[in-house]
Write a structure and sequence with these properties.
The complex is a heterodimer. Chain A is about 45% helix and about 0% strand. Chain A is mainly α. Chain A has a domain of about 35 residues. The longest helix of chain B has 11 residues. Chain B is mainly beta. Chain B is globular, with a radius of gyration of 23 Å. Chain B has one domain: Porin, CATH 2.40.160. In chain B, about 5% of the residues lie in helices and about 65% in strands. In chain B, the strands form two sheets. In chain B, strands 1-2-3-4-5-6-7-8-9-12-13-14-15-16-17-18 form a 16-stranded antiparallel beta barrel. In chain B, strands 10-11 form a two-stranded antiparallel sheet. The chains are: A mainly alpha, B mainly beta.
Chain lengths: ~80, ~375
């Protein structure tokens, strides 16, 4: 229940922040560089999901980069 | 349940939708992938298509094949070379309402002795003047494990993944990302073919084999942070770090740096370096003192203490397809990675004539290639 209460407080704060409209410190017209395709986290999903699979089949750690499907073809 | 309740509360109080988010572009990718390392060759095609409708809905479909030819060190020391194929299909749906994107996807992977179904759900919201994007992820997986030559054997794995992902615009040239994932698995988590070795003075080699035995539950947590900078001369630099730990006592650190450099409007180069290290699972041993030494036994090199280094580069060439007006633009991509795997406590048993446990440490290098054409329509 403690976790739920903490989440509630956080959610109320987030809700209140939404009402008061936090002033964005990077204005929409200043986001030209961020919108450049070279700034995408994952420019080629078909390739990056494959590489995640390559690592997950050969290393013990998983997660932290988006959910990948099961099965590994690595027996 | 507590996590789900907290997530539901959080969603209920998120700021209301006031503007509009964006769905990813319409795009098709056709890829050929190739992996060669440690006696294993895997290649095959992969296809991914995404299409938007009315700027509110998006659907995606994927198809992926692994054609495996394996003479890995496990195979050459305890079994015989084999070939097999794995096929994976996936479909996805996204719905954008204001600044909230709801997504669901499903994938099915099939092999002769292993089937896996995975369903993913996510909800993401842009907030605080679109400087912050918060996403909650949930994934449900069910695997069916069988063993060739043993029709009596059948078991399952249930998998649940809970995740939170936050992307934060920090400055007009810097974006940050944080993610946390919990992965809970229950069922038959070992490989039905793999064996562990134990010291056996009665065997001419000095050791014998028995099947490995893992706990039936595993819970892992991954915490990742990343940052991407836009450099003053139109290039991008990214840094990533991930910490992972689980109930099998594997702890790992992953670090990566990547650099993207567009030469002109058509040509873009990428280079990256990745470092990975992990400690061994608590029930892992390269050589157990006796047969049936403890409840759980593993000699899977994936659970050994290991390090890997990856150096990779990529080149993308954008062009206007001459005959397919349907595509506004297209790109030809080539990506190559070389991965060096180094094991601290997994011995190379192909080297014989040495006292058990004194064989050289195993290591191998892998070449990974992706050649793909992308079209935007």
């Amino acid at each position: 229940m403690k976790a739920a209460r903490t989440a509630l407080v956080f959610a109320l704060l987030a809700g209140a922040a939404g009402c008061s409209r936090i002033e964005p410190w990077v204005k929409p017209y200043e986001r030209e560089n961020l919108a450049d395709p070279i700034m995408a986290w994952d420019r080629d999903p078909v390739s990056s999901s494959y590489m995640r699979h390559v690592y997950e089949a050969r290393e013990g750690a998983r997660g932290g980069g988006g959910a990948a499907g099961g099965g590994c073809g690595c027996n | 349940m507590q996590l789900i309740r907290a997530a539901a509360l959080l969603l209920a109080f998120l700021p209301g939708a006031a503007g509009a988010g964006v769905l990813p572009e319409d795009r098709a990718d056709l890829m050929w992938h190739y992996y060669d390392g440690g006696g294993v060759t895997i290649d095959g095609p992969s296809l991914l298509v995404r299409k938007k409708f009315a700027e509110k809905y998006a659907v995606s479909a994927s198809y992926y094949v692994d054609m495996v030819s394996s003479a890995s060190i496990d195979v050459v020391t305890t079994a015989s070379r084999y070939e097999e194929e794995r096929t994976q299909y996936g479909v996805g749906f996204e719905y954008l309402r204001g600044k909230v994107t709801y997504a669901a996807s499903f994938s099915r992977s099939s092999e002769k002795d292993y089937d896996a179904d995975t369903a993913n759900f996510s909800i993401s919201q842009d907030m605080f003047g679109d400087l912050t994007t918060v996403a909650l992820l949930f994934s449900l997986g069910k695997d069916d494990v069988t063993r060739r030559g043993d029709p009596a054997f059948a078991d399952q794995i249930d998998r649940r993944i809970y995740g939170v992902d936050v992307t934060q615009i920090a400055t007009k040239n810097l974006v940050l990302g944080f993610s946390f994932e919990t992965i809970a698995e229950e069922g038959f988590l070992n490989n039905p073919y793999r064996q562990v070795r134990f010291a056996d003075a009665g065997d001419p080699r000095g050791y014998g084999y028995e099947f490995e035995r893992y706990p039936r539950t595993r819970t892992g947590n991954a915490l990742a942070v990343r940052a991407r900078w836009y450099l003053p001369y139109r290039a991008a630099l990214q840094g990533d770090y991930r910490f992972y730990t689980d109930t099998w006592e594997i702890r790992s650190h992953t670090g990566e740096v990547a650099y993207t450099h567009p030469l002109d409007e058509r040509l873009t180069f990428d280079v990256h370096y990745r470092y990975y290290q992990q400690s061994a699972a608590e029930f892992y041993s390269d050589l157990f003192p006796t047969a049936n030494f403890q409840n759980f036994l593993a000699r899977d090199k994936e659970l050994a203490s290991l390090k890997s280094h990856t150096v990779g580069f990529g080149v993308a060439w954008e062009f206007k397809p001459p005959r397919f007006d349907f595509f506004g633009k297209a790109a030809l991509n080539l990506k190559y990675d070389r991965i060096l795997f180094r094991y601290d406590d997994f011995r190379d048993l192909r080297v014989t004539g040495l006292a058990p446990g004194s064989e050289p440490r195993y290591q191998f290098n892998a070449d990974v290639v992706r050649l793909f054409v992308s079209g935007w329509f």
